[in-house]
Design brief:
Length: 118
Amino acid sequence: MEYFNAFWVGGLICLVGQLLIDLTKLTPARIMVTFVTMGVLLGGIGLYGPLVDYAGAGATVPLCGFGWALSEGVRKAVVEQGFLGIFTGALTAGAAGTTAAVFFGYVAALLAKPKDKA
């Protein structure tokens, strides 16, 4: 049942993204920022955590899951460090994902053969 819940929740999040692409004039960059921001906001008010508990990777893998991870990092850092945690929590929580993205982007750049678009 865990896989089913992850599949349908992740699919629903992707469906919302696809509808935003198809039915609005929003650019992909704005849609990505919207998803991350919604993850932060829903995490901040305590609504995204129960969705993560229910759907697992179906809720943490999409971009809104990254926003939720940032908000959780800030929340934990504020509890541990006080006011300074507002500035350090998101960096700590997002460090592994950001490092992986930079590393694999670098590897892909080394392996790819760039071409002109023309």
